[in-house]
Structures are given as C-alpha cells and as structure tokens.
Amino acid sequence: MTAARRLKVYFDGGCRPNPGPIEVAAVVRGQTYMRSDLGHGSNGDAEWLALIHALEVAQATGAATFELLGDSRNIIAQATGTAPARTANDKAHLARFGALAAGNAPARIRWIKRAQNLAGIALAAQHER
C-alpha cells in the first residue's frame, strides 16, 4: 500500500506600493486562488494574509494532510515558532493563523525559493514589468 501524498499549497502576498493595497495568492493542484480585497498594509501583513489564505484553501480541499510552501522566511519562522512575532500586527496574524489551524493544521510549513513559488509567479503575472 502506498502512503498518501501530502497536498502542496503555495502561497505569496504583496502590496504595491509598500504599504499599500494587499493582494494574495494560493496555488493548489494547478489552480490559483487570488484575493485583492484584504485592505491596506505592509508586505509583512500581505505575507501573513497569504499564509492564512493558503491554510483556508487547503482546509477547503478536505485533504487529510497538506503542507504550505512560501518564500517569506520571516513569516514562516513566526508561524512555526522558530522566531517570535514582535509587532502587534504579527501577533494578531499569528493568533488568527493558530486559531484556524487548530482544527486542521498543516503537516509542515516550509520555505522555498521565490523562483519556485507558483503563487508568487501568479501574482507577478498580474502586473506589467
């Protein structure tokens, strides 16, 4: 019998300018889920909201096990507990993430290179260079 493969969900967030309007993306099984109605904030806020968005998308798939992949070392370190959340905004985002993850947490949250981040690629495609 083969072990079930872990679902991979890519996430990225940003704002233009910084601070500015936030946009986030999550990519799972080749499908992109974007949001741009998340208000105004910093790139840090955008990355947190992208992680939360990816968690919600992953949970909505009903997958038994999943991992979240992004290119923000800082946010991943805070979400995994290897670095403290220092600002009030980061603490609020971490609390929200923790509450949402309590019911169905990711098996892993890991950093990947920006060039490998399918969600980042999807966000970049929305803007002319």
What are the salient characteristics of this protein?
129 residues; alpha/beta; six-stranded mixed sheet
Structural description of this entry:
It is a single chain. The chain has 129 residues and is α/β, with parallel strands linked by helices. Helix content is 37%, strand content 26%. Strands 1, 2, 3, 4, 5 and 6 form a six-stranded mixed β-sheet that branches. The longest helix is centred in the middle third of the chain and has 19 residues. The mean pLDDT is 94.
Provide a compact summary of the structure.
This protein has helices at 43-61, 73-80, 88-101, 118-124, and strands spanning 7-15, 20-28, 31-35, 40-41, 66-70, 108-111.
Tell me the helix content: 25-40%
Our count of helices gives 4
| Overall number of strands | 6
Largest sheet: 6 strands, mixed
Strand content: 25-35%
Determine the structural class based on helices, strands and strand pairing: alpha/beta
The coarse overall form would be globular
The low-pLDDT segments are: none
Tell me the radius of gyration: 14 Å
Distance between the termini: 48 Å
N-to-C order of helices and strands: EEEEHEHHEH
The overall pLDDT average reads 94
